[in-house]
Amino acid sequence: MKKSMAILLSIVSILTSVAFGFYMKTQDIEFFNTIEMKSNAYKIYVKNSSVAYDEFLQELKSIHSQYGATIIKTDRIYEDGKEIIYKSGVYTKDFFEGLPVKLESGRLPTTSNEWLASIDTKQENQVGTISDLFNDTPLVIMPLSDFYNSKSTDINGEYTIISSNKNKEDILNALSLFLNESKNELVSADYRVAFGEGTIYFLTIILSAILLIIFCLMCVFYPISRLKEISVYKLNGYKAFDIWKKLNKDVLIAPIIIFIASIPIQKIAFPTMDLFYFIKLSCVQLILFVGAIGLSFLTLITVKRYSISNMLKNFFDFRISLYISYIIKFAIFVGLVFTIPQLSSEVSRMIKEMQVKEAYQAQEDYVTLASFQLTGDGMQSFMNGTSQFNENLTNMFMDLTKSAKAGFVQSFWYHTEGLGLFSSEIKMPNDVDTDTEFGYMLLNDNYYDRLQFDSSVSKEELFDQDSLVIFAPESMKQKEATLKYFGQTQIYSADSNIKMSADDVCVKYYKDNRKQIFSESLQLANEDHAFFTNPVFVCLNDKYLKVFSGYLTTQAISNPVRIYDSNENKRAINEGIKKYGLELNNLQFKNVLMSGYKEQIQISQSSSIVWVAILLLVICISILSSYYILLTILISRKKEIFVKKILGYSLFNRYKNEFIYFIMIYIFGLVQIMILSRSFTSMAIYVLLVLLDILIIFRMIYVKETKQLSTMLKGEE
User: Fold this and answer.
1) Does residue 533 sit in the same domain as residue 550?
2) How far apart are CA 598 and CA 415, in angstroms?
3) Are residues 221 and 166 in the same domain?
4) What is the distance between the alpha carbons of residues 26 and 194, in angstroms, rounded to a whole number?
5) Is position 537 within any domain?
6) Does residue 416 share a domain with residue 346?
7) pLDDT tens digit string along 321-334?
8) What is the pLDDT of residues 637-686, one digit of tens each?
9) Transmembrane segments in this chain: where (predicted)?
């Protein structure tokens, strides 16, 4: 057991070093991403602006001069397979002096045209290299004018402004007026950047905690298994603390040796790690060591209670050891029950995602527009909505609907509370139901053919009309005004220049059925709307397809294009690319499943696997706690149990108190699971766990009693 305890603590020491490394790595990444942030810094977000970059640069320089503000634009650009963070700005003279960086070489910038970076940019203007602890976060700090000239002229993005608080409102007002955006819009982000240590970090933390609990159980049982050795020490006059040291010396020294041996290995693996990193890691390991000593004092409690008089009487009171074991068992079981609802939801989610994966696999013969590249100033015009690329791509797709039977589909879940957003532009009738929700699909005739939808309404009635056709289930007949207004707002949200009247929307109906239709939307799959029953179809002919052509520029799995993967259709795609001059845009048409969902499935499965692994580990600890409790009982009451078994006492009567304690733990767990989650899956998992625990307990009792009975009948102790 001593070797097992030493190995266990050594593993915890290694896991602690790994977890600490992941934590520091995350801190390092966050530091480089937010390096400019100070107490007087705030962010603004420029969106969909058509202002020329040179005019915007002059405005920022004017604000810089007037208010003494530093203004920094943040961009993340992939170059040579790596993401490089660019912090380009208009800086005050003292900005770099207050930057909390450690330089690997060079000096801090002193003029407005000098650069600072964590990598070698091979630029003459780079005067210093920032030390990067893990050498994995490329950062370039440069003047905004240089960024516009060498990287991108797109002014849209995230900006950090560092100025005195009294000037904040004046600066926001000036930018709001210049960009023609409201202040609320200017300070509101439409995305969120988060930093996390990742799954491995949390798994190592949980695994370390689990191993420490096992160590705690071992500390309780370890002295019980060494009573003869403790007796010898006591007879030789050793004090309790000296006996504790002799029993635990090797156990506690092993992880220290492992940690010291790992330091040069870590330095070789990560040569950029500095002394400060190892000092902090040593402090963490010291806390772990002190904690292990604290847990090992459970051994000292047993040693102190085992007196020479107990030894001579061949008697020892094991109640404290038992009580500690029961408390640990109770704590473990409570922790185990806490994992069940999460595991239940993970299992349910994984089942649903596998259904979605099967639906995507059924479409493995179809390709979508997985990616494309914008050339020249294409990004700027693309963001402004004036891109020639958009127009060429739309024209190419319209050709493919004829030559390659290209399908178009976009699915959404709609709550009619959103109808009120357009009431100022399109008058909303009084009979519109503003409290209903439904799934709907924007589709063209080619995709509708693929659905093989059984309806008395012909395809021509749906797609050959001049008006917009909404195809809805008959159960929504009472909501025709709502459907018409919904159609009007759909067109207006796609193109605000088109304001349709209710007469321009035609609603047709089909009989409700139980046919499940795959939404083909990753977002809806995540929101538990992967499949629709009786959805609303927005039928798009050529006229309305062009209105929704903006969706064509979404990439990978969100792209609405669906084309059968055949040699003939590949030729049609290549001809379209050449016809509309899209060769330089590197359009990639790939299998729908391979264009994003496969990665999502893998991420989700890894998450589920982690939770299953955690559950299995906690179950193992629960079993171990039961095992050590039974060992303690069998050792402390072996003569009593032997006599009762010989006299024919039933199993329940021999272990009456123990069964009562275990039943109380199970009842508490049942109440806990009913409070946390009343789902059938959670209850089923809990019942299985209890049955497994009971089965293992009975099996251990049978094996240990049989072995002990045989030993005692032979007259052995």
Assistant:
1) yes
2) 29
3) no
4) 10
5) yes
6) no
7) 777 777 877 887 78
8) 777 777 788 888 888 888 888 888 888 888 988 888 888 877 787 888 88
9) 200-224, 251-269, 275-301, 322-340, 609-635, 659-677, 683-702
